[in-house]
Design goal:
Length: about 350
């Protein structure tokens, strides 16, 4: 049985607050027109647009789940967590480096506190957002099995159109300071480690963190943190109604000329049926359905890491999925962080390179 040999990840018994939901992602992009086109083809809906800002929403009751601001360079800024109320914001405002409580300047309003995690990502805690009318979406298709056949004298014909995104499900970050960053999220937002993948020496390289909603089931992970050599956005994931929606999403995005990244397959940890795509700047976005949900009493699992361990069936994760963009700034960050971060070493980077190509 695999064992963890480091202090993190572990759950915090008395966190500052317990996050209730992943609310939105924040980007800076050089072309909002092409961003909007891709995101609409992916299954999001435009909530608001002007020359400098683009807000996209899911079919759920949230006013938006994706915000892009026009800028010269593409950058992932961070994300927002929904929290319980003003009392939660008051607690987070006391965290080192946090802003005071302020009115949100985004559509949907509400109040927020802005924090910066140990890896430099902006994390906004928000409450009292406006609830909007959910958008219509199709129901899951009935499936025939050997002992149960609800579809009689009828055919299976999912609509040939863009699948509706039901919600923003999770985001995945790569960080150099793995231990400190992991501890920050468990301590301040009450995230619970569902599963961790480790190297042969027991050191963690990926942790899947879920919300602590008590006895209410929560997605296997709302956030994942992976050991990297610099802070970077890995991907974000968006839930669809069923596997046919995931398949139809692939058809539509292929026909419209967007770049495929990996899939279709089914993950092992989390169990989601998945399909990954890239936006025009290489940011990865995932369609998924049929994910695991856990209550707060399920303990953390520890598993060996490998490319093969990322899926039960379908294509093995391609090396291109984790291949970084080589640049002078990237090499400089690699050298700096290997020297500085207690979580990094040349040996660990070589091991990760062998595993993920």
């Amino acid at each position: 049985m695999m064992k963890l040999t480091t202090p993190q990840p572990k759950r915090c018994q008395k966190p500052t607050v317990k996050a209730q939901k992943l609310a939105y992602l924040l980007f800076e992009l050089p072309d909002l027109d092409i961003a909007e086109k891709f995101l609409c083809d992916f299954g999001l809906t435009t909530a608001f647009r002007d020359e400098k800002h683009l807000y996209m929403r899911s079919a759920g009751p949230e006013p938006f789940c994706y915000r892009a601001t026009k800028a010269e360079k593409e950058t992932f800024i961070g994300f927002g967590f929904m929290v319980g109320g003003i009392e939660d914001l008051e607690g987070l405002a006391k965290v080192s480096g946090a802003s005071g409580i302020q009115k949100s300047g985004y559509i949907g309003g509400g109040h927020c506190v802005r924090l910066t995690d140990p890896s430099g990502f902006i994390v906004e805690a928000v409450c009292d957002q406006e609830v909007v009318v959910p958008l219509q979406h199709r129901s899951a298709l009935p499936l025939n099995y050997e002992l149960k056949t609800p579809r009689v004298n009828d055919t299976q014909r999912p609509p040939v159109n863009t699948p509706e995104v039901l919600k923003l499900g999770h985001t995945v970050l790569e960080v150099a300071d793995y231990q400190e960053t992991c501890a920050w999220y468990t301590q301040h937002f009450g995230l619970i480690p569902s599963d961790v993948q480790v190297l042969s020496d027991g050191s963690p390289v990926v942790v899947f963190l879920r919300l602590d909603l008590g006895s209410t089931p929560a997605d296997h992970h709302t956030m994942a943190i992976a050991q990297g050599f610099m802070p970077s956005y890995s991907h974000s994931a968006y839930e669809l109604v069923d596997a046919d929606a995931v398949g139809m999403g692939q058809r539509i995005l292929r026909e419209r000329g967007w770049k495929h990244s990996w899939g279709i397959g089914r993950h092992i940890l989390g169990s989601q049926i998945f399909d990954y795509w890239q936006d025009p700047w290489g940011h990865k976005l995932e369609h998924y359905c049929d994910g695991d949900v856990f209550t707060d009493d399920l303990p953390m699992g520890v598993h060996p890491v490998s490319r093969e361990a990322m899926s039960q069936w379908g294509q093995v994760m391609p090396t291109s999925f984790t291949k970084p963009k080589i640049s002078f700034s990237m090499i400089r960050a690699l050298v700096k962080n290997v020297r500085r971060s207690p979580d990094l070493s040349v040996r660990k980077l070589i091991t990760l390179a062998k595993i993920f190509g």
